[in-house]
Amino acid sequence: MAKIKHTKNELKAQNEALKRFQRFLPMLILKKQQLQAEIQGIDAAILEQTTAEEVQRAHLAAWVELFAEPVNLDNIVTIDNIATSEDNIAGVAIPVLKDISMTRADYDLFATPTWVDDAADMVQQLTEIRIAREILEEQRRRIVEELRVTSQRVNLFEKVKIPECKENIRIIKIFLGDEQTAAVARGKIAKKRSDNA
User: Fold this and answer.
1) Which of 74, 127, 171, 173 has the fewest CB atoms lying closer than 10 Å?
2) Nearest 5°: CA angle at 173, between 172 and 176?
3) Beta-strand (E) ranges in the chain?
4) Are 55 and 81 in contact, with CB atoms under 8 Å apart?
5) Are 97 and 125 in contact (CB under 8 A)?
6) What is the radius of gyration, based on Cα positions, of the chain?
């Protein structure tokens, strides 16, 4: 605890600091709750994307052996652009997926097996799911970091700053009260001496 002055000005400064901490604490708690709720929503979205990927992979398992056929599948689907924008959640800038543009490779429909179209669809769907999940995970990472900082601030205010101010106010009031009592006693002693003289 820092050394404090035992003056009325310091008492006023400590009272103002206490009011300021008590005014900001509910806002920080609300921000913390909002971030926690947002993390739950993102976790649900990540789970949804993971489940969608598992479903797609289960569909793929039925005919995945066909990929062993000697067909050139290099660059069957290429990602052209991933369009994102920034959104703001409780003061945190997070990326939001807007659009994914992909290009399919040109291949001879007569020279390639018919399953290549289905394979291109599957690769495209799995790629879109994976990109969406990566962006959600980045959102979660940023919000978790902000939640960590906000939780530290809440704990700082609740467990350190507010109790410290209250204790400083109590000490200053005791000191000023003792000083006032001593001044009254000195005044009585001085009056008694002047009356006796």
Assistant:
1) 74
2) 85
3) 77-89, 92-104
4) no
5) no
6) 34
Look up tokens 């945190």; give the residue: 92
**pLDDT single digits (tens) 78-127:** 888 889 899 998 889 999 999 888 888 777 777 777 777 777 888 888 88
Indicate the SS3 state at residue 6. coil
| CA–CA separation, 78 and 62 (whole Å) | 24
102 contact partners, CB below 8 Å, separation of at least 6: 77, 78, 79, 80, 124, 127, 128
List Cβ<8 Å contacts ≥24 apart for 173-177: 173/11, 175/6, 176/6, 176/8, 176/11
Among the listed residues 136, 40, 122, the one whose alpha carbon sits nearest the alpha carbon of residue 87: 136
3-state SS class at 97:
strand
Taking the model in full, what pTM does it have?
0.76
Give 112's DSSP letter: S
81: β partners? 101
Nearest to 63 by CA among 110, 117, 100: 117
* Dist. CA 54–CA 61, nearest whole Å: 10
Compare 67 and 130 and report the one with higher pLDDT: 130
Q: In DSSP terms, which residues pair with 97 in a beta bridge?
A: 84
Q: Give the least confident one: 15-19, 163-167, 183-187.
A: 183-187
Domains of the chain listed by start with CATH number: 8-183 (1.10.287.3240)
